[in-house]
Structure formats: C-alpha cells, structure tokens
Amino acid sequence: MKITEVRVIVTCPVGQTYTLVKILTDEGVYGVGEGTKNGRELAVAALLEHHLAPTLIGRDPGAIEDIWKYLYKGAYWRGGPIHNSALAAIDMALWDIKGKVAGLPVYSLLGGPTRRGLLTYVHTHGRDFEEVTDNVLQRKEQGYRVIRAQVQTPGMPGGYGAEDQNDPDYQRSKTERLPYEGVWEPEPYLQIAPRLFDHLRAKAGWDVELFHDAHGRLTPIQAARLAKDLEPYKLMFLEDPIGPEHAPSMKLVRQASTTPLGIGEIISSKYQILPMIVEQTIDYMRCSPMHIGGITEGKKLAALAEPFEIKTAFHGPGDVGPIGAAASAHVGMAIPNFGIQEWVRHADLTHEVMTGGPWFEDGYLKLPNTPGLGVDINEDLARRYPWERKYLPAIRRADGSMHGY
To answer: Is a pLDDT exceeding 90 seen at residue 404?
Structure first.
C-alpha cells in the first residue's frame, strides 16, 4: 500500500475554522486527521500543503513511527506549535488508515480499552455568582459529574471564560474580525475566584467535582495565593495557574497548597512538559495530541507521566474539532493514567461536515467500535464553508499594557 494523495481541507462551519487532512492510498483506503491551530489555521494548512504533503507521496502509510521521525527530524527546523499540529494531522490520518486495514478501532491497536467510557466535563460561566450557580445546577441535572466554573470579574470585561459581551470593544472585534483587546487586572480576579467557589459549594453541594481555569494569566506568587485560597473547596484541579514559560516556578505553586494542578494546553512538545512531570509539580497534563504531534506522541507522553502518578486532561474545547476530539479519546481509552477529557458538543452543522466521533452519555464520552478513528469528512459540504479570519483575544491591563490571554 502506498500514499497517492494528501488533501488539505480548511473549512469554517458556524464561525470556527478547522484545518483537516485526508490521506488517500492506491488501495482505496483513506484516513482523516486534524491539525487546527486557532487563529493560525492557514499557517498549518500552508505547511501541510506546500512542505509536508509532497514528501509523503509513495510512502507506506503503515510506517507511522518512521514517518513521524522523518517529518520531525528531517525538517531540521523542527518542533513548535505550527509544525507539531501539522504533524499531528498526518499522524491521525495514518492511524485511521491502519485501523481500517486491521478492521479495528485505533484504541485497540494502542493496547485495547482500559475503561468503558471517558470522564468528561462541561464549561459553565456567568455574570454573577447566581448565574454561574444556575448553570452548574442545570449541567448537574444533565448528568455531568465534573464542571468547570468561571465568573465575570466586575469592571474587568476581558475576564477569561466569562467575558463581558456587551463591551463595545468585544462587539467591534466580532464585526471587524480582529482580536478583542479586553481589560483585565489580577487583584480583583484573585479576590472573586475563591468567593465564587465558596458560593458554589454552599449552593451546589459537594457531590459534584468542580474546577477553575486561570488561563496562565498569573505570576507564580499570584498562582500560589490562588491555589491556597481555593484549597478549602477541594477542586479537581486548578487549570493553567501560570504559563508554561514559568515551568521551574511550578515548584512554588505546588508548595503553597494541596490543590491539584493541571497545565499544558499551549505546550506543543514533550520536552516542554517533561520537567514538570519528573519534578511532580503537576497532577494533570493538558497537552492535546492534536498540538503535540498526534496519537503517536500522545501515547508516549502518557507513558512518561504514568510512573509519576500524573494523569491526562487533554485540551479539547470548540476549536478542537470532532476529528481531533476522536484522536484524544482513542488515546485516553487505551492508557492506564487517563484522568479526564475536555469535550464540547459542536454545532449540528460542524458534525455534518465532520461526522462521527465521541458522544456524551451519563457523564462520560463513549467511542464507536468502527475501524479506525470512527470519523469522516464530508468534503462537498466542507467546501461550502471557506476559511474566515478569527483571532483569540489579546488582553490588556488597566494601564493599557499587554497581558497574556
């Protein structure tokens, strides 16, 4: 079997662009993959189309490990979020082909199922404590066992996960398709976040697991303070308390409290997160297979973390499409140290463009037993929704200086 064609598909159903690949073979078997990088979709697509795809023609699609090393080491300019997302798309498609040839779901090829379903969570937010509480209770009724909670910080329209959509700058950013430059300050946020969870525990009880995302906005000492202040509320974990650039400072955050910590959604390489694994300064690693090189690398990263009692919490919001979500789920199904999988139910149109994938049932994600990844691309429909420019926010402090999103 030989690779005959690599198609790069960029599609934007319902306002979110996805970068996809379809690898075809001379025996009629094909595989699909995803390498979406939110706000940089065309950069990944250009790398795939102009640089990586031509080198795959004529190769054996079953030689996944060799192709991975060839594309990573052979480039010389290796690694980084764009390169590793493109590599992930190819890697997923090759595993999809291998599963179809074997007549088995990908997780069976990775060692078989280690569980019946994948624990997942849902995002909730609100303008005030009561609105967040109402949303948490509603999601609890829907069967979610773990819930992430965010609340608007008064006077700070650029708060993460609960932005003020009435802010004129927010509305203008949507019209002009440019980054939203909202305002955010750490001190009001550091005061309101613990109060939110005090309120939630009083109203929603202790029979649901809660957690919170700081989105890497804090300095190490600020993150240590927040982790300590949240300790009484027994969070499942505090997500991204600091940015990955400050990995050595995770020791300071860890020493401040027993609040579990998760980090890694913008990490694109095992080399970046390895020190945090070895030093056991995190409890959950959030690196999505779609952003670190695919299924091949996701399985290896999980194996590295296992002896250190670190679990996975793979990144998987709306800018990870159904194909990327399926790849994460297959890895999660096959590893012993799976923790939880972030997942969202996309709009119906998105699921028409990318069919199949995991589904939610009583707090868990379930996977089909179909060969390969269990997902496909409706190319005709995908072509009807071309790329649309979209950016993540670019947050500023009250004095106008830049701050990380």
So the answer is: no
